Amino acid sequence: MSRSPFLEMIRQEIRLRGYSIRTEKSYLYWIRQFILFHKKQHPQLLGSEQVKDYLSWLANDRRVAVNTQKVALNALVFLYHKILKKELGELGFSLAQKQRQLPTVLRPDQVYAILSQLEGRNHLIISLLYGSGLRVAECLRLRVQDVDFHRLCLTVRDGKGKKDRQTLLSHSAVDNLHLAIEYSLKVQRQDNAQGLGPSLPHAIDRKYPSAFKTQAWMYVFPATNICTNPYSGKPCRHHLHDSVVRKAINYAKNKAGITRQRVTAHTFRHSFATHLLQQGHDIRTVQELLGHNDVKTTQIYTHVLGQHYAGTTSPLDALTQ
Q1: At what angle do helices 242-255 and 108-115 cross, to 10 degrees?
Q2: More confident residue, 164 or 95
Q3: By the number of CB atoms within 10 A of the CB, which of 40, 92, 97, 304 ranks highest?
Q4: Model-level pTM greater than 0.90?
Q5: What pLDDT does 313 receive?
């Protein structure tokens, strides 16, 4: 399939700036959709009015979510400011205000019920999402060097906002994590025998040609199949895809009879934070473990605590029956 030279030039610019592969795909998608919306006219011939028309169409006709609107806007701002060197000026376009939504949180017995339906790798992944408060991508990107069994902590590298942080490692996950690492290193040795190894970040493979043989760089949860590195074009083994986790959660929650709540991988992170606060842990500690920039983001969990929040109970409970 032939590729647009213009979009390929944008792709190279995105990679030059060190953006993630997810951001690259997202930006290219929205820029392509913008071009198609305007009947394949070159963006150089378009301006702020056309950008406003497109964003209004997304909001009013497509009725996309607020976050989707923001991603599309960011992609077009990148296109005009960084690529075309063209100022858009004041668009006069107001994004829909995102309403505050309380996170879905499971009770401890519900978390236990879901984990009871899983085993092996899937059980360990969900255990880490809940026990360490990880985002699913953070969990799947863990490498052997990110696990510290002596200090019982995990290092999350290049997380949201390109930040590194450390979080808890549960005692109960240690044995299974040891087994997972032993398996991943076995996979690495088999790959190394064929001249292959894990996908490596940035220019590590050029600076250190033998890095793919180093145990530290191996993923804890390697993918089943070999893929092509989108940057180098070389075959490698990436980490497990998050769709595997979604399917496992959906299967387990249904088997556990939890059908009245929407349960996603992020639900376990929400539950991690809420249960720590219920146990009386300081909100600043929870903020640090989650990697939030602002404590206001963490405070959302205080709104789902019910009677546990600051010891508050309903006045109805104080009435003498």
Answers
A1: 110
A2: 164
A3: 304
A4: no
A5: 58
Degrees, nearest 5: CA angle 182-188-192: 150
* pLDDT at residue 1 is higher than 50: no
Alpha-carbon span 125 to 148, nearest angstrom: 17
For 17-73, write each residue's pLDDT tens digit. 878 888 999 999 999 999 999 999 999 999 889 999 999 898 888 888 888 888 999
| Residues belonging to the active site | 135, 160, 266, 269, 292, 301
Q: At what angle do helices 265-278 and 242-255 cross, to 10 degrees?
A: 70
